[in-house]
Design goal:
It is built from five helices and six strands; from the N terminus they run E-E-E-E-E-H-H-E-H-H-H. The chain is an alpha+beta fold. Strand 1 and strand 2 form a beta hairpin. Helix 2 crosses helix 3.
């Protein structure tokens, strides 16, 4: 190996190599595989497209673009890869969708959360809406600095 660099997105490594027999140079792009353990026990490769497809249903009729969904799927993949796990349960992927979806569209967030957090009643929806309202109020409050003690 002659040189090794991490890609801009941090998800792969580009390595420059040299053949020991012919001295020819070539590059390789290495990525860590990420597998999903489905509820049935079947293991398959992680797919951003499946994340987008699942979230698209929750976003139906909402002002969310395909570019927004692609960005969300990228954030989800980055969050999962940041855990260092090579395998993750499908339900964990659904739960990792919630924070970026909440920032993207609150109605789509509630739709998606109702499935992945297994809402059973109107009380579950009311509690989720109360949390959203509290988060919004907290974000709207101006940040005040505490006076320095002067010591």
């Amino acid at each position: 190996m002659i040189d090794s660099r991490t890609s801009d997105d941090g998800l792969s490594i580009r390595r420059r190599r040299q053949c020991p027999e012919c001295s020819g140079r070539f590059s390789t792009l290495e990525t860590a595989s990420l597998s999903v353990i489905k509820r049935s026990g079947v293991v398959e490769a992680f797919s951003r497209e499946k994340v987008v497809a699942g979230v698209r249903k929750a976003c139906q009729g909402r002002p969310v673009t395909d570019a927004d969904l692609a960005t969300l799927a990228q954030k989800v993949e980055e969050a999962i890869r940041a855990t260092g796990a090579s395998q993750i349960e499908a339900n964990e992927i659904g739960l990792s969708v919630l924070p970026p979806l909440k920032d993207l569209d609150e109605v789509a967030y509630l739709r998606f959360a109702s499935v992945y957090q297994a809402f059973d009643s109107l009380n579950d929806f009311e509690a989720a809406v109360a949390v959203l309202r509290a988060d919004r109020e907290r974000a709207a409050q101006p940040v005040t600095e505490e006076p320095s003690s002067g010591t």
